[in-house]
Design brief:
Length: about 200
């Protein structure tokens, strides 16, 4: 399988999941602005949505959307515990967290990366993020990971998105449990390996 990614983007989450699960992936970097892959291919032809992550299966079929790709990878190695079994209530709780991170955090960060976003909008979006992080802070104050004791694909996604805070000058110092979570996840060997592979850490 091949994962199309951009360093530090949301594609880091399925990259982490693959390493946690022991799934070998071929990686191909994508220039998000030029929409060209590292090998020179037109990324629009690979994924008409134009964004990463994109997973090319061995069959040649294309799978898109980070939370979907992460669950697909986890399901290839169910013994990894990265996603609860399909049809169980914990699996729906996993999807609940994935949906929350996707809609309430991930998309709220987007305008903060654009240089032409008005300052008033930046301030409003940052305050919105803090309100949405509070729910996760409350969860993580009681347990090490979103679903309890087991690291899952939701944790990989939360870690990836929250890493963006420092790039957009979002102060999360008021969320000690979240900060401890980021440190805990960042120290996982597979997470460090994924970040090193993408040039995010040494």
């Amino acid at each position: 399988m091949k994962l199309y990614y951009s360093p530090g983007a949301c594609s880091l989450a399925p990259h982490i999941v693959a390493l946690e699960a022991g799934i070998p992936l071929q990686l191909e970097k994508v220039d998000g602005k030029a929409k060209r892959t590292e090998s020179g291919a037109d990324f629009w032809q690979i994924n008409p949505k134009g964004y990463v992550p994109t997973l090319e299966l061995d069959s040649g079929e294309i799978l898109t959307e980070g939370p979907v790709i992460s669950q697909y990878l986890a399901d290839q190695m169910p013994a990894s515990g990265l996603a609860p079994a399909n049809g169980t209530l914990p699996r729906y709780h996993l999807q609940e967290f994935l949906g929350y991170i996707n809609s309430e955090l991930h998309k709220t960060y987007s305008p903060l990366f654009k240089p032409d976003t008005p300052e008033a909008t930046r301030t409003e979006r940052k305050e919105y993020l803090k309100r949405r992080y509070q729910l996760l802070e409350n969860v993580l104050a009681k347990q090490p990971f979103l679903l309890g004791e087991q690291f899952t694909v939701a944790d990989a996604y939360l870690f990836t998105v929250t890493n963006w805070a420092r790039h957009v000058e979002l102060d999360l110092s008021g969320f000690p449990a979240l900060q401890a979570f980021q440190k805990r996840v960042g120290e996982r060997p597979a997470v460090h390996a994924a970040m090193k592979s993408e040039g995010l850490v040494k």
